[in-house]
Structures are given as structure tokens and as C-alpha cells.
Amino acid sequence: MSENRLDGTDHLERSIDWKQGLAIALGVPLLILPSLGYLPMYVSAAAILIWGISVLQGFMQSTAYAEMATTFPKASGLPGFAQHVFRTENYKGKYDKGKLIGGFSAWSYWFAWNPVLAIFSILVGGYLHGLFPVLAETFTEYQLALISGLVIFSGLFVVNWFGLKDGAKLGYVLAAFSLIPLVVLTVAPFATGKVELSNITGSWMPADWAWDMHHILILFGIFAIAQWSACAWETAAIYGPEYKNPSRDVPKALYACGVICFFSFVLVQSAVIGVLGVEGVLAEPLSPLIPVAQAVFGQAGTMVTIIMLIAAMILIIQTAYLGSSRAMHSMSSEGNLPRVFGKTNRQGTPFVAMLVIGAFNLVLISMGTPAAILAASAIGYTCANGISLFAYVRAKNHPAFANLERPFKAPKGWKKVALLFGLFNLPLCLVGVVYLNSLEVGWTSTWVGFLVLSLYIPIWLYTQRESRRLKDKPATAPSSDEDAGDLERVPNRR
């Protein structure tokens, strides 16, 4: 049963091992689906190289995150690390600016993962619209996306109500049903000789590519979009408070998922371009795997592919749903969101956060196109990674953290690597993705991204007032025996 804390939030339950954490995070390789046709639009077949470099970037960043996860075993991944490192202990003023920075990083991370639910609900609706003519006659794609989102969110909420362990079991089932066929679909074109190497080497870069400022900014933007997918396996660290042995389980889950992602991202993009060519990919930008399946397996294979992809999308929605709900719980636990978002049920599930996330994504679906939502979400992800890497550097330099036990240690001098990639995210990738958004989907997604991020300021200020009221409560006499019991139950966190 969950234990109450001073801020009114509850502890998460330690119930999973590294294999179960990996099972939940295995939805990450499927994040390539919305961008399979997007990257070749700008960099042609070099998209294969971009994916490989981006996953390697994930190894650089996640090595720092693995150390942080074992240094702060009660922190929930990136959101928890940044909040813990930047806050000022025993702060006496009205507002702790360091705490605001850490909280903003967590909010950015939440906004990075949260829209995955809407993006893939739209894709599910689109596939159903094309797969079943009777549905296409009855519903629009938007209506199918909305219905799909409602059904999937409700189903996942019910399954995960009984705890993260049951969510991991669902991850096993969906991983087997979706990732294995995805591997077959990736390997089969190579095995059957459908991949034409000339499709890759003959269109390595666009003919009009030039290394001017315009194209360099596009490249930074492409890396921001790519890392939203290819570096997202750091989500395996967010379950730190729920691993039975964080010092052992976190690095294993992280690196195992990273290796799977490397081969998956590189080979899937290679197979798609190798079979269709860059022009063929651009002709089917949202679902290029379908014509690949038709070329390799025929019409029957296409049907199987769509069913497999829908299962795959449910898996990544599950990954995002759990990750973003833990981010909200972490923010509430640290006093950076109203404490109601930290409420858990008897099984340790942050159910209030999950309800809010589901409702928010039903609204996001109204934006219509996955590209627009992803573009806004990528802004949050670059901010979250940049600030989290700066948090790692601060944790290595600050005397307050110097003597903490670090069961897993990154190689010597890794804080310089973390600083380098932190600066790569902020400001380079952030500027690049804003520029890329302005070219591709206009300024709407950029404004949506910055609006959602800026909403954190008033929410945070309200939370600080709430926290001060709670902190002052022990100074007054309890109004009832029940209140007195509450005060005895909760320790002082400061």
C-alpha cells in the first residue's frame, strides 16, 4: 500500500525488474513510424545515418541518466533527477528559482511524452479508415481517431489500475504481437532481394543540399525530430522508484533497449528506402511500411502489417501513458505540481495523472496531423534533455552531491560529454526544430508548444502557495483527531 508523504503524494511501489522495465520501454522502436517518411523528405537516404547517430546520441545521454538513476534511486527518471538537483535545500525565500528550473524540465519531459498518445491514436484511426471500408463510410478519420483514443486510453487505464507489474505483462504481449512481425517485415526485404542498394546510394543526399545556414538549421531541426524517437529509450530510467534493485535494473533495461533501438531504427529505414526508393517513400509518407509489405508479401501481407502496426501503436501508447503519468507524479512529489496529481491507488498507480493525460490527449487529437503534434512535442523534448544533462553536470560539480553513493558510474570525464550534448540540445536543436516547424507545418505547432510550456509558470506559482499552506499547517492545532493522525504520519522532507 502507498505511503503518505508531507506533500500529500504517495510513494510508488517497487514491483518490477529490468526485464519488465524493458518490456514497457520496448514501444520506443515504434516511435520511428511517424517519421519514416518525414526525414527522407529533407535528407533523402541519409536519414539512415541520422537515425544511427541519434541512437548513439541516446547512448551518450543515457549513460549520464543511468548514473543519475542509481545516485537518486527514488527519483523518476529525467523529471526526478532535474528537480532534485536544481532545488535549493532549506530555501528560506518565497520562490526557489532552482526548483522552478527543475520543475520546468520535468514539465517539458511530460509534454514530450504526453502527445504520443494523440499522435498514435490519429495513426490508428487512419489505418482503420483505410483497412475497413465500412468504417470509412460511417466515420471520418478524425472521428475514428477520437474513438480509437477513447477506447485505447480507457483500456490501458483499466489494465494499469492494478499496478505497473500488470502493465509490464501487457507490454510482453504487445511486444510479441507487434515487434516480432516488425522484425520480419524489416528483415524479409533483405532476405528476398527486394532491397536495391542503388535506391540508397543513388539518393544519399538531396540534389539541392548545400551547407549554408538554411540547411544547417534544417539539420539541427532534423536531429531534434529524430532524437524525439531515437533517444526516447531513456524512458526505461523513469521507473527508478519502481525497480526492485535500481542500481542493477536501470542500466540493464536502458542499454538493452538502446541496442534494440539501434538495429531497429537503422534497419527499418534502410528496408523502406531500399525497397521503395526515396521517391516511393515520399509518395507514402505516413505509412511507407504498407507498400513494403505489398512488395514482399502481397495483399495478404498488407492486411497483417496493418493489424501488426495497430498493435505496435497500442504498445507505444502504453509506454507514453506510463512515462508521462510518472512524470506528473514526480512533479507533484517534488512540490512542482498540485499535490492531487501525486495521488495513487492501493496498487501504487498515479490514477489522477493518468485521467488528466487521457483527457488532454483527446483534446490534442483535434490538431489533426501527427506531424504538427510531434513538432510541438519535440520542443519539449529538447528542453527536457538539455536541462537534465546540465543537471548531471551540476550533480558532478556541486559539493552537496559529492559524497553520494553512485552504484553505477559513467566513465571518467563524462560530465564534459553531458555538457556537450546539453548544449547540442539547448540551444542548437531547439532553434533548429523551431526553424524546421516554420518551414513544414507553419507557426501553429511552435506556438502550441511554447504555450503549453509557458502554462507551467502560473501552475507552479499556484503550487508554491499550496505548498506554503501545507508547510504552515503543523504550526496550528489539528482541527480533528483525523487531522492529528495525518500530521503524525508524514515526515519533514526538508
TrEMBL record:
Entry annotated with the keyword Cell membrane: yes
Where does the record place the region Disordered?
470-494
| One Pfam family in the UniProt entry | AA_permease_2
- Domain of life, per UniProt, equals Bacteria
Give the signal sequence positions.
none
Subcellular location, record wording: Cell membrane
Q: Which UniProt keywords apply?
A: Cell membrane, Membrane, Transmembrane, Transmembrane helix
Predominant cellular place of this UniProt entry's protein: membrane
Membrane topology designation: Multi-pass membrane protein
TM region positions: 21-39, 45-66, 107-130, 142-163, 170-193, 213-233, 253-276, 296-322, 348-367, 373-393, 414-436, 442-463
Q: Which PANTHER family match?
A: AMINO ACID TRANSPORTER-RELATED, INNER MEMBRANE TRANSPORT PROTEIN YBAT
List the protein's name. Answer: Amino acid transporter
> What does UniProt list as this organism's lineage?
Bacteria, Bacillati, Actinomycetota, Actinomycetes, Micrococcales
